[in-house]
Design goal:
- This protein has about 800 residues and is α+β, with helices and mostly antiparallel strands.
- About 35% of the residues lie in helices and about 20% in strands.
- The chain is built from 24 helices and 29 strands.
- The strands form 8 sheets. Strands 8, 9, 10, 11, 12, 13 and 16 form a 7-stranded mixed sheet that branches.
- Helix 1 crosses helix 23.
- The chain is globular, with a radius of gyration of 34 Å.
- It starts with 5 loop residues before the first helix and ends with a strand.
Length: about 800
C-alpha cells in the first residue's frame, strides 16, 4: 500500500509549476485581483498565525484561476516606519540592513505556502523607485492645498520619540510600543483628509465590506448636524491671539433645542482664549491646569470618569436668556472637535451633570416627558425627546422638532449659524524619525515652503551612521548639514530641506496600485493598466486596520481619482477580515510570550498542504481560533487516506454506480456552495466527510472511478494544491489541475435511487426498510407492515409516516 510522502510530492510539483506556470496572462481572460495586506518585515519572521490570511487569499485566488480568470495576486513589503526602525535600534543594526535581511527570511517563509504570488510584481516601500511616487503624490497634494504645515500640540510617544496620529493612540498608549502617550507642541505636516469627509462617509454604502468595519469608519468620521452658537463675552479680551475673536466664544452643539438650559461653558485647555480669560485671581490655577492637561492624551482625557476643571473667572452671555454663564476649562473638552468650546446643559447631559454637581453649578431642566417639571436632583434627564419647559417662547414645543428647527432660527436671529461637524481630524503626516520617506519640501526664507520639482524625485533618504531618534522634536536628518542645506528650487537662494519623514502609512496608502505596473519609471501606474487591472476585487487582512490603513487608502485613491490618475474612487471592492490564530488560552502569539509556533517546523513535519488545510479547518475564518498541535494530525490523516484511495484506484477500471454518482454531485454542490459562502472550515470538513463516503463505496465495489477522483482533485486544488495535482495526474488528467474546469453538479444526480426508512413499533426501531426514493406513502406503509408483521402483537391503533424519514406503528 502506497504511503503519503508529502515531502516528495510537494517538491515534485513545485518544480513542475516553476517550469510550467499555471497563472499566465494571455490578454483574453477576465482579471481577478486578490490582495493580501502586505506585511512589515519583522525580525521575528512569520508564525502560523500569519499564514492564515495568506492561505485564505491563495485558496480564493486558485479558485478564481480554475474558474478561468487571470489572477493578480502580488506580494510586497511595508518596510518603512516605526516597526522596522525600532527593531533596528534594538539590535544595533542599520534599518536598511536589518530590513533587507528580514525581507529575505520572510520571503523564504512565504514561499513555503506555495501561493500564486507573482514576484515580478513585488514592491518595497523603501525602494527609491517606489517612494519616488509616494513623494510625487505628496507634491500633488501640496500643489492642491491638501498638504500644509501647522504647529500645535500632538500626541507624542516618549519611547518611540515621535509624533503620532490620533488613530495611532490606543487606550492612551502608543499602538506600536505600548508606552503612555503625552503631548508635545511641534511643527507638523498635515494632510487635509477632512476635505474628503463626506465622500469617505457616503461611499461606504457602495462597498462590499463587513458591516463592523463600515460602522467603525462611520463613527471615526463622526458626522453630526447642529449649530454654531455665539456667546458674547461679558468682558471682551483685548489681547486675543491673531485670528481669534476676543468679543465672543463660538460653541458647536448638536442640541440647540436645549440652549435655554445652558448654565455654564467649558473650554478645552488648548483653546486660544483659555489663558486670556483668566483673571488675576485665577491666573496661576488656570496656567497650571493648562500645563497638566497638555501632558495627557486625548484618549485618557475622554476615558476618565472623574471630571476635573478650573474656573477662569470670566463670564459669557447666554444669547437666549441674556444671563451670565461662568466659563470653565476642563480636559474632557477637546480642542480639535467642534470649536473647542461647549455650552453645558447639565440637566440633560451626564458629563455636564457630573461637572455641575462637583463644582456646584446651576442645573435647569428644559425637557420633560409631558411638559411638567422633571426631577433632576439625583441624575440628568437624558431622554432623546420630550416637551420643552423653561424655554421662553419655545416652551411647549417638541424637543425633536426644535432640534431640527433651532439652527435656522438661531441663524435668522444673528446668534449663530446652522452647520455640519465631523469628528475626523486632519492627518498628522510628520514623523521625527529617520526611517521613512523624506518629505519633498524645501524651506526658503523668501519663497516659503517650496515643493521639490517632480523631475528631481525621488528625494533619497541619506545614508547615516546615527539614525536613533533625538527626542528633541527634530529628526536625525536635521543633523546632516550637507543634506539639509540646499538651494530653493524657485529662486535659487540658500534654503533648508524638510527634515521630518513620512509616517509608515504613506506607502501602504497606494501600494496596491503599483503592483500592476511595478517597473514603470515614467508614471505611478499607466492609465491603460489601471483601467485594465484595477481596482482590487478582494482585499484580505486583519480588522486592526479598519480605520488607519483602510481610511487612508480610500482618501489617497479618491485624490488620485480627482487628478485623473485612476478612473475609480474606491480601492477595494470587497473586504474580508480573517480572525487571529492565538496561542493557548486565547493569548496572542508573540516571541515575548513564548507561545509562537513556527510554520517552518510544521511544513517539515506535515507538509504545506496539511498546514494550509489546518489553518482553514480550525474554525470560521473570520473568527479567532486557538492553535492546537494535535489538530493538524487529523488533517494529515485525511490527506493520507485520500492519497491511498487514489493510488488504490488508479490502475483499476471502476464503473461508477448510481450511489457513486450521487456522492460526486453532492460533493460538487456542497464544496462549491460552502466556498462561495466563505465558510472555509466547512469546506475542509466536507472533504473529510465525502472522502469517507468514497472509501465506504470503494470497499463495496473495489475502488472509485477516475472521473469522481478527478472531480475531487479539482475541488481540493485551491486548498491543497500539491496532492490535488498528484491525484489529477494519477487519474489521467491532462495538463495541470489548475487548467481544468470547475465542475458543476446536476441536481437530479444528487438524489438517491433508494432510501432507508426506519420502522418503529411504539417508538422503538424494529427494522429498516430500503425502498425506491420516489415510492408513495401507501407503498411504503404496505411494505413496512409486511417487513415487521411478526413483530406486531396487539391491535394497530395508529400509523405515523414522515415521508422519507420514519414510519411508526402504535399498537395496544
Amino acid at each position: 500500500m502506497a504511503q503519503y510522502n508529502h515531502q516528495a510530492i510537494e517538491k515534485k510539483w513545485q518544480e513542475y509549476w516553476k517550469e510550467n506556470p499555471v497563472n499566465v496572462n494571455d490578454g483574453k481572460k477576465e482579471k481577478y485581483y486578490c490582495l493580501d495586506m502586505f506585511p512589515y518585515p519583522s525580525g521575528n519572521g512569520l508564525h502560523v498565525g500569519h499564514w492564515r490570511g495568506y492561505v485564505i487569499s491563495d485558496a480564493w485566488s486558485r479558485y478564481q484561476l480554475i474558474k478561468g480568470k487571470y489572477v493578480i495576486h502580488p506580494m510586497g513589503w511595508d518596510a518603512f516606519g516605526l516597526p522596522a526602525e525600532n527593531y533596528a535600534i534594538k539590535n544595533h543594526v542599520h534599518p536598511a540592513i536589518s530590513t533587507a535581511s528580514n525581507i529575505k527570511n520572510i520571503k523564504r517563509q512565504i514561499n513555503q505556502i506555495n501561493a500564486l504570488y507573482d514576484w515580478d510584481m513585488e514592491v518595497n516601500t523603501t525602494d527609491p523607485d517606489f517612494y519616488k511616487w509616494t513623494q510625487w503624490i505628496f507634491v500633488k497634494m501640496f500643489e492642491k492645498g491638501l498638504a500644509y504645515e501647522k504647529e500645535f500640540p500632538i500626541n507624542w510617544c516618549p519611547s518611540c520619540k515621535t509624533g503620532l496620529a490620533n488613530e495611532e493612540v490606543v487606550n492612551g498608549c502608543c499602538e506600536r510600543c505600548g508606552s503612555p502617550v503625552t503631548k508635545k507642541n511641534l511643527r507638523q505636516w498635515m494632510l487635509k483628509i477632512t476635505e474628503y469627509a463626506d465622500r469617505l462617509l457616503n461611499d461606504l454604502d457602495k462597498l462590499d465590506w463587513p458591516e463592523k468595519v463600515k460602522k467603525m469608519q462611520t463613527e471615526w468620521i463622526g458626522k453630526s448636524y447642529g449649530a454654531e452658537v455665539y456667546f458674547k463675552l461679558a468682558k471682551p479680551v483685548s489681547d486675543a491671539p491673531e485670528g481669534t475673536d476676543g468679543d465672543k466664544l463660538t460653541v458647536y452643539t448638536t442640541r440647540p433645542d436645549t440652549l435655554f438650559g445652558a448654565t455654564f461653558m467649558v473650554l478645552a485647555p488648548e483653546h486660544a482664549l483659555a489663558s486670556k480669560l483668566a483673571t488675576p485671581e485665577t491666573k496661576e490655577a488656570v496656567e497650571k491646569y493648562i500645563f497638566d492637561s497638555s501632558m495627557r492624551s486625548n484618549v485618557d482625557r475622554m476615558q476618565d470618569k472623574e471630571k476635573t476643571g478650573v474656573f477662569t473667572g470670566s463670564y459669557a452671555i447666554n444669547p437666549l436668556t441674556g444671563k451670565e454663564v461662568p466659563i470653565w476649562l476642563s480636559d474632557y473638552v477637546l480642542a480639535d472637535y467642534g470649536t473647542g468650546a461647549i455650552m453645558c446643559v447639565p440637566a440633560h447631559d451626564d458629563r455636564d451633570y457630573d461637572f455641575a454637581k462637583k463644582f456646584d453649578l446651576p442645573i435647569i431642566p428644559v425637557i420633560s416627558p409631558d411638559g411638567e417639571d422633571v426631577d433632576v436632583s439625583e441624575h440628568a434627564y437624558t431622554a432623546a425627546s420630550g416637551v420643552l419647559i423653561n424655554s421662553g417662547e419655545w416652551t411647549g414645543k417638541r424637543s425633536e422638532d426644535m432640534k431640527k428647527n433651532a439652527p435656522a432660527i438661531i441663524e435668522e436671529m444673528g446668534l449663530g449659524r446652522k452647520t455640519v461637524n465631523f469628528k475626523l481630524r486632519d492627518w498628522v503626516f510628520s514623523r521625527q524619525r529617520y526611517w521613512g520617506e523624506p518629505i519633498p519640501i524645501v524651506h526658503c526664507p523668501h519663497c516659503g515652503n517650496v515643493a521639490v520639482p517632480v523631475e528631481e524625485l525621488p528625494l533619497r533618504l541619506p545614508d547615516v551612521e546615527n539614525y536613533e531618534p533625538t527626542g528633541t522634536g527634530e529628526s536625525p536628518l536635521a543633523a546632516i548639514d550637507s543634506w539639509v542645506n540646499c538651494k530653493c528650487p524657485k529662486c535659487g537662494a540658500d534654503a533648508k530641506r524638510e527634515t521630518n519623514t513620512m509616517p509608515q502609512w504613506a506607502g501602504s496608502s497606494w501600494y496596491f496600485l503599483r503592483y500592476v505596473d511595478a517597473h514603470n519609471d515614467k508614471e505611478l501606474v499607466s492609465r491603460e493598466k489601471a483601467d485594465k487591472y484595477l481596482p482590487v476585487d478582494m482585499y484580505i487582512g486583519g480588522v486592526e486596520h479598519a480605520v488607519l490603513h483602510l481610511l487612508y487608502s480610500r482618501f489617497w485613491t479618491k485624490f488620485l481619482y480627482d487628478i485623473g490618475v485612476v478612473d475609480f474612487d474606491e480601492p477595494f471592492t470587497k473586504l474580508f477580515n480573517q480572525g487571529m490564530i492565538t496561542g493557548k488560552n486565547g493569548i496572542k502569539m508573540s516571541k515575548s510570550k513564548g507561545n509562537v509556533v513556527s510554520p517552518d517546523d510544521m511544513v517539515n513535519s506535515y507538509g504545506c498542504d496539511a498546514l494550509r488545510l489546518y489553518e482553514l479547518f480550525m474554525g470560521p475564518p473570520e473568527m479567532d481560533a486557538e492553535w492546537d498541535d494535535r489538530g493538524i494530525d487529523g488533517v494529515y490523516r485525511f490527506l493520507s487516506k485520500f492519497y491511498r484511495l487514489v493510488t488504490d484506484s488508479k490502475d483499476k477500471d471502476v464503473e461508477p454506480t448510481r450511489e457513486m454518482l450521487a456522492v460526486r454531485h453532492k460533493l460538487i454542490r456542497d464544496i462549491t456552495s460552502r466556498l462561495e459562502a466563505f465558510t472555509l472550515n466547512t469546506v475542509v470538513s466536507g472533504f473529510m466527510e465525502y472522502n469517507n463516503a468514497l472509501i465506504d463505496i470503494a470497499k463495496k465495489i473495489g475502488g472509485v472511478d477516475k472521473e469522481t477522483l478527478k472531480t475531487f482533485a479539482v475541488l481540493l486544488a485551491p486548498f491543497a494544491p500539491h496532492i490535488a495535482e498528484e491525484a489529477w495526474h494519477d487519474m489521467g488528467g491532462e495538463g495541470s489541475v489548475f487548467h481544468a474546469v470547475w465542475p458543476e453538479y446536476d441536481e437530479e444526480m444528487t438524489k438517491e435511487d433508494t432510501i432507508q426508512v426506519p420502522i418503529q413499533v411504539n417508538g422503538k426501531v424494529k427494522a429498516v426498510l430500503e425502498i425506491e426514493a420516489d415510492a408513495d406513502k401507501e407503498t411504503v406503509m404496505a411494505k413496512a407492515r409486511e417487513l415487521i408483521q411478526d413483530k406486531i402483537t396487539g391491535n394497530i391503533v395508529k400509523e405515523i409516516y414522515v415521508p422519507g424519514k420514519i414510519f411508526n406503528i402504535v399498537v395496544k
